[in-house]
Amino acid sequence: MVYDRICRLKLYKSLSPLMSDLEGFIIRNDLNDLDNGEHKISGEDLFVRVMEYETVTEDASVYECHRDYMDLHLILKGREVISCLVENNLPVAREYSKEDDTVLFEGKAGKKQHLDTGDFLLLFPHEAHAPSLSISSVPEKVRKAVFKLRFSSLY
Predict the structure, then answer these.
(1) Model confidence at 55: pLDDT above 80
(2) Residue in 127, 80, 123 with CA at minimum distance from that of residue 107
(3) CA–CA distance, 58 with 68 (Å, rounded to integer)
(4) Residue 100 CB neighbours (<10 A)
(5) Within 10 Å of residue 105's Cβ, how many Cβ atoms?
(6) H helices within 6-130, ranges in order?
(7) Residue 148 DSSP SS3
(8) For residue 142, which of 72, 50, 66, 61 has the smallest C-alpha distance?
(9) Each residue of 119-152: pLDDT tens digit?
(10) CATH number of the domain where residue 125 is located
(11) Which domain holds residue 55?
(12) Any residues with CB less than 8 A from the CB of 146 and at least 6 apart, and which?
């Protein structure tokens, strides 16, 4: 897991050959101007999903984990909490689906990462996470880009 500001993304280029493509996409595009939905950057190896939603309370959260992709959650507007756990021994709520590269877990309270506009959280496939959580008991509107980087690109 890597937590930082997007202005320092270049420090993490060595984590994946796709990080340069990701950084170039961010430089060339105003992410706030992108339509909600999925946008291809480097085919199936690197793409971004832009979304808007209201945050939820932790009791409504579900932990997810991926096998084929790393996630880079970038807050474009608003703020949220992402709760993180290592996948080991979590009770499975839904078995792995290759279609969406996701397994769902019943989770307990994990390590909370507070993300504000301009913050990112890079999660590796073994890191379970519950995104979209409210910082307080009041839901907040969030606009976020989730970059999906194929994990096999590391090898």
Answers:
(1) yes
(2) 127
(3) 26
(4) 9
(5) 20
(6) 19-28
(7) strand
(8) 50
(9) 999 999 889 999 999 999 899 999 999 999 998 7
(10) 2.60.120.370
(11) 2-154
(12) 48, 49, 51, 71, 72, 73, 74
DSSP string across 72-100: EEEEEESEEEEEEEE-TTPPEEEEEETTT
Whole-number pLDDT of residue 86: 77
- pLDDT tops 50 at residue 155: no
pLDDT, tens digit (0-9, with 9 covering 90-100), for 93-106: 999 999 999 999 88
Instruction: Quickly tell me which residue has 């409210």 as its tokens.
Output: 134
Domain count for the chain, please give it: 1
Are 7 and 118 in contact, with CB atoms under 8 Å apart? yes
pTM equals 0.93
Residue 86 in tokens: 């290592």
Q: Would you say 122 and 116 are in contact if contact means Cβ atoms under 8 Å apart?
A: no
Structure tokens, 124: 């590796």
